[in-house]
Amino acid sequence: MTLAALRARFREVGAREVSARATDHDATAKFDREAFRRVGASGLLKLHVKKEYGGEGLGLREWAAAIEGFGEGSGDLGFSVSMVAHAGCAITVLQEFGTPEQCQRWLPRLMSGEVLSGVANSEPRGGTDVMGLRSRARKLSDGSYVLSTRKRSITNAGEAGLLLVSARLDGASAKEAVNLFLVDTSGPRVKQRPLRDLMGLRTSPTGDVLAWRAPLPADALLGPVGSGVACFRRMFSLERLFIGYLFLGAIRRCLHRAVHHAETRLSFGVALGKNQYVQEKIVRMRIAEELLSAQLERTLTALINGEDVFGALSIIKAYGAEVAREAAEDLIALLGSQGLRASERAQKDFRDLMGLSILGGTQELQKIVIYRETVRALTPAVPSAKPSDELQLEVKTLAEIDRTLKAELVALVERTFPNEEALRGHYYYDSVPDSVVVARVRGKVVGMRAITRRTVHLGERTLKLAGMGIAVDPEHQRKGVGRALTRATMDLLRSLGDELAVAFLLSPNAQSLLTAHGFQPLNAEVSYTSRSTNERVVEKMPCWVAELGEPDSVLPELLKRGKLHLGLGTW
After folding, report:
1. Residue 387 lies in a domain
2. Other Cβ atoms closer than 10 A to 378
3. Partners of residue 148 on adjacent β-strands
4. 54 φ/ψ sector (left φ>0, alpha ψ -120 to 50, else beta)
5. How far apart are alpha carbons 450 and 358 in whole angstroms?
6. Which residues are bridge partners to 503 per DSSP?
7. Phi, psi dihedral angles at 246 (to 5 degrees)
8. Which of 190, 307, 442, 481 could anchor a disulfide with 447, C-beta 3.0 to 4.6 Å?
9. What is the rounded average pLDDT for all residues in the chain?
10. How buried is 316 (Cβ within 10 angstroms: 0-12 exposed, 13-18 middle, 19+ buried)?
11. Which letter, b or e, does each residue of 114-153 get, where b requires 16 or more Cβ atoms within 10 Å of its Cβ?
C-alpha cells in the first residue's frame, strides 16, 4: 500500500471511530475505550510490529504516514496523544528491547487495543529528567524485584493495564542505574490516580502512579541492566516525531475550516476572504503547514538513516506547538463568537495544543536544546590538544604541586590578572583546588585550569559539580592554549563522574571559549558561604555552566529552581 493510501485509510478510521464523539468526551473528560479497541481492530496498532509477533512489519515511514492520517481524521488531539504514547512509544520500545517472552505476553493484547499502555517517567521533583530519577527498584535473592515510585502526570495512567516505569536499580553502577520495568497495573501495591481537572487533552487519560515496595517478577526488567537511557532516547525520538505529525494534522484542520469560512461567510455583502487581514491569517496557516511538513519529512529520513536528530526533533516540538496553537487561535478569531462554541472544536484544539506544549518537555526546555545544538553546529570544532614540544598538558593533584610549580602558577595568574588584588600571591581565590591542568610551552608554564570539585544539594538530590578557574599568559592567548586546557579539563571531569562544570566570566574574552565548549549563561541565582564571615553571599560575576553527562540531566531542574548554592567558599 502506498504512503498516500495509508494516510487516506487511517484518516477515514480516525474520522469514523473517534471524530463524532470527541466533543462529548471532551466535556466529560472521558477516554473512549471502545473506540480504542476498534482502532486496534483496524490494524493501526500493529503496522510497525514485527511479523513474528503478529504485526505487519512495516517500516517507520509507513507507520508515520498512518499516524499522520489518523491524527488529521480523528480531530481529537487527546485521543491521538494516547495512541502515540501507547503504540509509538510503549509498543515500539517493547518490541525493540524486550525478550521474546515479554513480547509474546504483552504485544497481542496491546495491538488489539485490549490493554492500554503508557510510559511512566515524569516525577514530582524532577519532571522528565531521566538522570534525576528518585524511583528505586531493588533486586531480591530470588531474581524478582520490588519497586517504589511516584510518577506524576503520566499519559494513559488511570486506564493503563501496562506501564513502562523508570527507576534506579539499587547496586548498579552509575552508568547502569537507570532502567525500565514492565509493571502490570493490576498487581499488588500499584495505584493509579486519574486527573480529571485538566484544561486540555481531556480525552486522553492522565494521572499519577504510586507504588510502595511493589513486587515485580524476575522478567519485569526491560532490556539488559543499564539500557534505560537508550530506551528513553528511542522513545523521546519517536514521541517528538509523531507529536509533530499531530501538530501538522491540527494545522490542516484549522486551514481547511478557515478557507471554507472565508469563502462562504459574507461580511457587508462581500466574502470574508476578500479582507487582507483574513487572508494573512490563512496564509500563515498555509506557510506553517508547508514548513512543518518539510521539516518532518527531512527529520524522518534522517532518523531512518540512523543520523543524530536530537536537535531537529526539538525544533519540531517547539515550532510545531507554536504554529499549531497560532493556527487554532487565528481560526477562533476568524469564526468570531461561533469559534468559541464547542461544536466548532477550534477552542478544543487550542486547549489541547496548550497541553501538548507543556507535556513531554516544555517549549522553554526545547529552546534550550535548540540553542545548545545551534552553538555546536556553528562553532568551529575545537582540535584536541596534542602534547608536543610546543604545547604540553599535565594534570597535577594538590599533593603534586610543589613549591616551584606553585610559584610558577602564582606568577602566571599575576601576569594574567595584574589588577586583581584578591589574587595577589595566590593562584586561586579562597578555595584550594583539588587539581590543576597545567599547560607548558618549551617547559614554561603558559596556562592552567584550576579544578575545585564539590557535591552540592539541588532540592533533595545531590549534584556533583566542578568549578573551573583559568589563567593564560597574555603572550599565549588566542593561540589555542585555553581551548586545549578546557577540552582536557572537561574530559577529566567526565571520567570522574562529575555532572556539571561551572565557570565564572571574569573577563569578556572568555565568553567565546566557554561557548565553544557547550557552556551557557546560567539564569539563576548563584551563592556561596563566605569563609571569613560564614554568611551567604550572592555571586555577582556571570556564571556559565555546561552539562557533563546526558543532555538535560541537570539544567531543567536547576533553571526551574532558579538557585544554585556552591557551599563553603568560591574558587
Report:
1. no
2. 8
3. 136
4. left
5. 40
6. 544
7. -70, -40
8. 481
9. 89
10. buried
11. ebbbbbbbbbebbbbbbbbbbbebebeeeeebbbbbebbb
- Give the tens place of pLDDT for each residue, 21-67: 999 999 999 999 999 999 999 999 999 999 999 999 999 999 999 99
254 and 349 within one domain: yes
CB 331 within 8 A of CB 286: no
- Is the pLDDT at 436 greater than 80, yes or no? yes
Boundary residue ending a domain (115, 141, 156): 115
CA distance 48 to 107: 12
* Spatial distance between the Cα atoms of 3 and 58, rounded to a whole number of angstroms: 11
Q: Check: CB of residue 206 under 8 Å from CB of residue 56.
A: no
Establish if 385 belongs to a structural domain.
Answer: no
Which is the catalytic residue, given 68, 72, 159, 239? Answer: 239
**What three-state secondary structure class fits 210?**
strand
DSSP code at position 185: T
Q: Where are the alpha helices (DSSP H) in 42-174?
A: 60-74, 77-83, 92-97, 100-112
Tell me, yes or no, whether 215 and 330 share the same domain: no
Q: Note the pLDDT of residue 124.
A: 82
Of 115, 143, 174, the residue that ends a domain is 115
430 in the same domain as 335: no
- The enclosing domain of 73 has a CATH number of 1.10.540.10
150 lies in the same domain as 59 = no
- Nearest by Cα to 199 from 349, 379, 37, 39: 349
Give the chain's length: 571
User: Which residues partner with 461 through β-bridges?
Assistant: 458
Look at residue 279 and tell me whether its pLDDT is greater than 80: yes
Whether 49 and 107 have beta carbons less than 8 Å apart is answered as yes
| Grid coordinates of 264 | 462562504
pTM over 0.85: no
Burial label for 28, CB within 10 Å (0-12, 13-18, 19+), is exposed
| 557 noted as active-site residue | no
- 371 occurs within a structural domain: yes
Structural domain range at position 321 = 230-378
Q: What is the pLDDT of residues 351-391, one digit of tens each?
A: 999 988 887 667 777 888 788 778 767 765 444 444 445 88
